[in-house]
């Protein structure tokens, strides 16, 4: 159990199934990492995707994000 999990008061029996799910869904065969180029656009389905951004050096790069919803 990590410090973060123990701080929110979750018992190990509740945390372990979630930790296993995270390990399985973030395995190498499920991860896409994009190498950005000028003019690139990337989209994803927020309903069925875990996503994160790596730290960005804002002194030489600008991160621009738009959100749209399709009913």
Task: Write a brief structural summary.
27% of the residues lie in helices and 0% in strands. The chain contains two helices and no strands. 0% of the residues are buried.
Poorly predicted parts: none
What is the helix tally?
A: 2
- The succession of helices and strands, N to C, reads HH
Termini gap: 39 Å
Would you report the number of β strands? 0
Strand content: under 5%
Rg from alpha-carbon coordinates:
17 Å
> Strand count, sense and closure of the main sheet?
none
How much is the average pLDDT? 77
Shape: elongated
The helix content is 25-40%
Overall SS class: mainly alpha
What is the topology?
Elements: H1 3-7, H2 12-25
Please tell me about this protein's structure.
The protein has helices at residues 3-7, 12-25. Helix content is 27%, strand content 0%. The mean pLDDT is 77. The longest helix is centred in the N-terminal third of the chain and has 14 residues, at 12-25. It is mainly alpha-helical and 71 residues long. The protein starts with a helix and ends in a 46-residue tail after the last helix.
């Amino acid at each position: 159990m990590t410090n973060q999990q123990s701080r929110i008061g979750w018992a190990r029996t509740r945390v372990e199934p979630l930790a296993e799910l995270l390990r399985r869904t973030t395995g190498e065969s499920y991860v896409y990492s994009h190498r950005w180029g000028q003019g690139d656009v990337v989209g994803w389905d927020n309903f069925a995707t875990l996503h994160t951004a790596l730290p960005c050096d804002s002194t030489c790069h600008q991160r621009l994000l738009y959100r749209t919803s399709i009913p």
